[in-house]
Specification:
The chain has 25 helices and four strands. Helix 14 packs parallel to helix 16.
Length: 510
């Protein structure tokens, strides 16, 4: 532990501050998850007096690395996820959540099985019921209530000995083991107790904190920081090569997801490893990881992935590597699984269907079930619209789009939907398009795009529509062939109240 009488700043504290400056410069727009909260800034270090008062109040000493961090680097601030708590924030958290009993001996440990965890929280729930019944009996007998007493504290068993030091969002927390065999270890846990806690690999707080900075500056994905092993892609490969332990190999493979790309040499290595491994679970993880990085030469593994139930990864291989013949072979299986897919897997399936747009079995009507789904995210639906735009028989889903256009308020989603139905001549749709034109022709962005469309540049060209509302209006006008005029003249008709009303009357839309 650093001598408290020594006023000089430890070398590691200065190093951390310099790394934070680099991180702030690298992520100047605060785009990395959690950065908007801490902004890569540390608070002023806590005073020695305040630290000692905190320890006296709660009856324990903080782990030395964390204690020194607060004293020499900063009293919380920048850190993984939403940052590191200050001592005041730690106190507030302790006061607001009855699951904490930092003075007691910890009962959780690394690699705790889900079965052991369920047994622990079940016994805690039973204990709570017994204590509640005893308390109710005492209350009825006139005994004084003891809301903060020892008996109630016993109900906090699962997170005994854990100090909350940061939030990861919602009920997910970062904690520090206060005592016992794992003192000083950083642990991730859920206040809702949904799953066993997770211990990060580092033995102390500073190792965990500095690895975050190192991986952040290296450009790794830190959204799930600490859940993966440390080390570069090359170092992880070398570690894989040295071990024969299946479980360790699986963890190494999972850790590769923190990289945004995988070097070709490593793709080749893991492909060879996949062929020689005999454990089905490990093989699945290897193929999934390689598919995630769009590795070539995996077409022969599609059958294995499908057999293992790794449909998303199989479809990824089919989408990005499969030839026409491969895509055609798996087309019906993709249609069969499509209602179960979401996210990248769903989007990749749509891209494969789009690539086979000229296949006799592919038509828009087969995607009606997907259009009716309510569990698709915004990006899923955008890709679905993008796919339908290229397919035959879009008239078969015109009624769905008519209902959708009448309810949607997101301009970008409306634009995607209108593009999906481009060229379809349906009376109901055309009337809905007129309603949308009435609504968006007065939108500020549409007005600005209209003004640009009327200006002629030196080379004779004109400004196109660059704003979402302007693009939506232009696509709606395209459905009417811009009233049989050049696009910029069609805009003039629309933006003139008199001309627009006259056109609607002539076309029977009044």
């Amino acid at each position: 532990m650093v001598d408290m009488a020594d006023a000089r700043q430890p070398a590691w504290a200065g190093r951390i501050k310099k790394q934070l400056e680099k991180a702030k410069a690298k992520d100047s727009d605060l785009e990395i998850s959690g950065a908007h909260s801490h902004k890569y800034e540390l608070r002023r270090p806590v005073s020695r007096e305040k630290m000692e008062a905190f320890e006296r109040k709660y009856g324990f000493c903080l782990p030395e690395e964390y204690r020194d961090f607060l004293l020499f680097a900063g009293d919380g601030g920048a850190g993984p996820y939403f940052g590191v708590y200050s001592l005041d924030e730690v106190e507030r958290e302790l006061g607001s959540e009855r699951s904490y009993c930092p003075q007691k001996e910890p009962v959780i440990y690394p690699e705790m099985s889900e079965e052991a965890w369920e047994e622990l929280i079940s016994s805690d729930e039973e204990g709570k019921k017994e204590r509640a019944a005893a308390f109710d009996t005492e209350r009825k007998a006139g005994a004084a209530a003891n809301p903060g007493g020892e008996d109630e504290e016993e109900g906090c068993r699962p997170y005994a000995g854990i100090l909350p030091i940061g939030s990861q969002g919602c009920t997910l927390m970062t904690g520090l083991v206060i005592s016992g065999a794992y003192q000083g270890r950083v642990v991730y846990f859920d206040l809702d107790r949904c799953g066993a806690p997770f211990f990060v690999q580092e033995e102390g707080f500073l190792g965990w904190y500095e690895r975050w900075l190192k991986e952040l500056l290296a450009g790794y994905d830190v959204d799930f920081y600490g859940m993966h092993l440390g080390g570069s892609a090359k170092e992880l490969m070398e570690r894989y090569e040295r071990t024969e332990d299946i479980k360790e190999k699986a963890v190494i493979v999972e850790s590769c997801y923190k990289f945004h790309s995988l070097p070709a040499k490593l793709k080749t290595y893991y492909k060879k490893a996949c062929r020689r491994e005999t454990d089905a679970g490990l093989c699945t993880k290897l193929i999934k990881m390689l598919a995630h990085f769009h590795t070539e030469g995996l077409a022969g593994e599609i059958d294995r992935l499908w057999e293992y139930g790794a449909y998303g990864e199989a479809i990824s291989v089919i989408t990005y590597e499969g030839t026409w013949e491969v895509k055609e072979k798996w087309l019906e299986q993709i249609f069969e699984k499509l209602p179960q897919l979401t996210g990248e897997a769903f989007q990749d399936a749509c891209y494969t269907v789009k690539a086979l747009k000229d296949h006799p079995a592919v038509e828009a009507g087969r995607l009606r079930e997907s259009l009716l789904r309510t569990d698709l995210c915004r990006n899923d639906r955008i890709v679905l619209f993008y796919c339908i735009e290229e397919l035959r028989d879009r008239e078969a889903v015109a009624d769905w789009f008519l209902a959708y256009l009448s309810k949607e308020r997101d301009v970008h989603m409306l634009l995607c939907a209108v593009r999906a139905m481009a060229g379809v001549k349906d009376e109901g749709l055309m009337r809905q398009y007129v309603t949308l034109l009435d609504q968006y022709r007065t939108h500020e962005d549409a007005k600005r795009d209209y003004e640009g469309s009327q200006k002629v540049l030196k080379n004779g060209s004109r400004f196109g529509c660059s704003r979402p509302a302007g693009q939506l209006v232009n696509n709606l006008l395209a459905a009417f062939d811009h009233f049989g005029k050049p696009w910029y003249e069609g805009w003039r008709v629309l933006m003139s109240d008199e001309s627009w009303e006259k056109w609607k009357g002539q076309q029977g839309f009044l």
